[in-house]
């Protein structure tokens, strides 16, 4: 436990965040963009837990933030999938380039 | 290097590899399965950090809930065997460069910053989490707890309203088009009848 420095764990969460960013930049399918957002939120959760454990072990605030982020991510995924299914019904496609009525 | 460190490096390689594959594979169903593996790897990382409660929540909510929801929506909207269209090379290169640059900058900051880690024991327990979650004194999380419960209620109602099937003539674009077509056909028939009867 103590022989892994904190920066190595932060390397994992940072790399995961930017992998998610790469997916968000390159994908044009709404479901895969949602997956990228899930990866980003997970990397933030890792950060909260690690900072809580390594820097402030007598407090619990990082754990609480992680729990709330997981809750909000679940709500966000449910809403996003409802919107995606509704969009698919009216456009027969969930490509963000094809849903351009509200673009300008 | 101890066994604990080796386990950590295996877990992190697994997380990053699965995440990278989830974001680069072009079959959408495989992407969802790689995301599932990445989330399981993150749960394993929480187990390694000895926060078993968060690991359990992660498995229940993400692996059991969100990924299943995503797979359902893939089956509802896509032919999952098809490959997604290839993105232009310019966009791929530009986003890879942006991401690499951002990662380098962020990790440089982390590397330079001198974290003052303590070796104290991290004492969490579910009863401690519960009593602080519902505490109303300083440091209690009763208000965010209530606000989140309202948020979940609003999200549930919003999902039902958004995904509810609209009445057939009101908003369904396809139905409207069909209606228009039938009206046009009817008017054409009318004009031909008029021509035949000579009026």
What can you tell me about this protein's structure?
- The complex is a heterodimer of chains A (104) and B (199).
- Chain A has 104 residues and is mostly helical.
- Chain A has a single domain, classed as Helix Hairpins.
- Chain A has 3 helices and no strands.
- Chain A is elongated, with a radius of gyration of 17 Å.
- The mean pLDDT of chain A is 88.
- Chain B folds into 3 domains: 1-124, Four Helix Bundle (Hemerythrin (Met), subunit A) (Up-down Bundle), CATH 1.20.120.1200; 131-164, no CATH class; 166-199.
- Chain B is built from 7 helices and no strands.
- In chain B, helix 1 packs antiparallel against helix 2 and helix 2 (28-48) runs antiparallel to helix 3.
- Chain B is extended.
- Chain B starts with a helix and ends with a helix.
- The chains are: A mainly alpha (104), B mainly alpha (199).
- Chains A and B meet through helix 1, helix 2 and helix 3 of A and helix 1, helix 2, helix 3, helix 4 and helix 5 of B.
Task: Outline the secondary-structure elements.
The complex is a heterodimer of chains A (104) and B (199).
Chain A: H1 6-26, H2 30-54, H3 61-91
Helix pairs in contact in A: 1-2, 2-3
Chain B: H1 3-24, H2 28-48, H3 52-77, H4 89-112, H5 126-133, H6 142-163, H7 173-197
């Amino acid at each position: 436990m103590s022989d892994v420095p904190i920066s190595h764990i932060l390397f994992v969460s940072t790399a995961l965040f930017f992998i998610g960013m790469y997916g968000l930049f390159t994908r044009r399918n709404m479901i895969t963009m949602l997956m990228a957002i899930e990866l980003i939120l997970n990397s933030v959760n890792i950060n909260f837990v690690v900072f809580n454990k390594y820097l402030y072990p007598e407090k619990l605030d990082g754990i609480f933030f992680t729990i709330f982020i997981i809750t909000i991510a679940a709500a966000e995924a449910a809403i996003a999938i409802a919107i995606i299914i509704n969009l698919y019904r009216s456009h027969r496609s969930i490509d963000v380039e094809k849903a351009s009525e509200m673009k300008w | 290097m101890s066994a604990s460190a080796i386990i950590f490096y295996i877990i992190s390689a697994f997380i990053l590899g699965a995440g990278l594959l989830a974001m680069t594979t072009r079959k959408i169903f495989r992407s969802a399965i790689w995301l599932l593996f990445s989330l399981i790897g993150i749960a394993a990382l929480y187990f390694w950090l000895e926060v078993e409660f968060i690991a359990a929540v992660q498995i229940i909510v993400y692996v059991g809930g969100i990924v299943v929801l995503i797979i359902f929506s893939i089956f509802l909207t896509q032919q999952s065997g098809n490959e997604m269209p290839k993105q232009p090379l310019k966009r791929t290169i530009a986003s890879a460069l942006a991401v690499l640059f951002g990662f380098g900058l962020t990790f440089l900051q982390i590397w330079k910053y001198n974290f003052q880690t303590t070796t104290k024991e991290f004492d969490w327990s579910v009863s401690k989490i519960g009593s602080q979650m519902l505490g109303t004194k300083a440091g209690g999380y009763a208000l965010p707890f209530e606000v989140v419960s309202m948020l979940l209620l609003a999200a549930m109602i919003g999902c039902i309203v958004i995904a509810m099937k609209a009445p057939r003539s009101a908003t369904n674009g396809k139905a409207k088009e069909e209606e228009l077509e039938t009206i046009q056909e009817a008017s054409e028939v009318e004009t031909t009848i008029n021509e035949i009867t000579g009026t």
